[in-house]
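This part of the workshop introduces the protein records we will be handling. An example says more than a description, so a record of this kind follows:
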Amino acid sequence: MKKQTLLLAAVLIFSASNINAQKFKYGHVDGNLVYKKMPEVQKADTIYTAYVKQLEDQIKSMQDEYNAKATDYQTNEEILSDLMKETKVDELKSLGERIQKFQVSAQEDAIKKQKEMYDPIRAKFNAALKVVAKKYGYKFIIDKNALLYFDEIDDVTKLVETELGIK
């Protein structure tokens, strides 16, 4: 009985050490480089930049209007009646609040637009990484830009670019 137990223990230890001795294949990819080469990113950058510019232009226009009204008020304050002063101050407060609300909404919209534009591209990139990992037997593919040191890790950047159809 003791011999069987010892034999079973030896087999288990050998099996466990054999599993741990498996060599995993590691790779790294320069995600930023691949990402920048994807035509979809360039198109998304153009659309997103134009969208953000529209929002910024609207905010600038509103701020210019506010500044003009504030300057007008300061210039004419002495000759305005109390009723006109109160009306202009209320108008400035209201415009200031609208600008603040618009800025918050614009920021939320920009984030939403960014997610809408870039999430499908990231998904495509990640799918290509998975295909390369399975196709070439990689257990881990790590973004090169996140590493402090790597040695004896295959660079799979060209493989991912090929999978994405980038030349």
